[in-house]
Amino acid sequence: MRFGAQLYTVREFTQTHKDFAETIKKIAAIGYDCIQVSAINPEIPAQEVAETCQAYNLDIIISHVSPLKIIEETGQVIEDHLAMKAKYIGVGSLPNGYSHDKKGYRKFITDFIPAARAFKDAGFQLMYHNHHYEWEKFESKRAIEYLFEKFPEANFTLDTYWIQAAGGDPAYWIDKFKGRVDVIHLKDYAVVGGKRRMAEVMDGNLNWGAIFKASANAGVKFGMVEQDECYGKDPFECLRASLLNLKNGYNDLKHSK
């Protein structure tokens, strides 16, 4: 698995052209060699994003794109990803306006199938990123299972923290989605002051040995390090700590009994 930085972690520092360039420089200096583009100022054009990342030898693997843009400007999304050389086009969550029931997920699939097929035809892949609510059941089936079965044109960016927050086992679900989970989000789950918190990878309570074994079995190619909330810490330092932990522990955990 190749490790990258999810730019959502540092979203406060990607809202101007100057800040974006400085952020990319910092990400590269930390030691990452690839990223996920997410939550940057939409006025920063894809070509500028691509050129800035290229200057610091950072590959763009995946994005999160406005759901509305995906369905209304599908051709432009393809052009943007051609410029960035990013194969995976991500939907960050079930968009606003879609109910969290069978009817809502069915409508989501219907609306997004044309874009997903257009992406495939152009050599790209639509990716759906989960939160916790996709583990809600309707008619004895979880929403995430409904998406998996009814939307074969989509693949999944499974998020370790949010699966755990839903009461699921990240390793189990990564393995279950074998072949359709090229990218995952690496995010740890801690308890502080009696409350759940996001944490640097391997500084929380997730079973990383099981997660890495399942990822290898499922064919996961990229693990994007993400920490939505850093609770007053410098988000760049959080990304640095996660990468250091991964470099020190990934191979040992992957091969542990």
What order do the helices and strands come in, and which of them pair?
Layout lengths: L1 E5 L10 H14 L3 E4 L8 H10 L3 E6 L2 H6 L1 H11 L3 E4 L10 H20 L3 E5 L7 E2 L2 E2 H8 L4 E5 H6 L4 H7 L6 E4 L1 E5 L2 E5 L8 H11 L3 E4 L9 H20 L3
Parallel strand pairs: 1-2, 1-12, 2-3, 3-4, 4-5, 5-8, 8-9, 9-12
Antiparallel strand pairs: 6-7, 10-11
Helix pairs in contact: 2-4, 5-6, 8-9, 9-10
Overview of this structure, please?
The structure is a single chain. This protein has a single domain (2-254), classed as Alpha-Beta Barrel (TIM Barrel), CATH 3.20.20.150. Helix content is 44%, strand content 20%. It has helices spanning 17-30, 46-55, 67-72, 74-84, 102-121, 143-150, 160-165, 170-176, 208-218, 235-254; strands spanning 2-6, 34-37, 59-64, 88-91, 125-129, 137-138, 141-142, 155-159, 183-186, 188-192, 195-199, 222-225. Strands 1-2-3-4-5-8-9-12 form an 8-stranded parallel beta barrel, surrounded by 5 helices. Helix 5 runs parallel beside helix 6 (143-150), helix 8 packs parallel to helix 9 (208-218) and helix 9 crosses helix 10.
Short overview:
The chain has about 260 residues and is an alpha/beta fold.
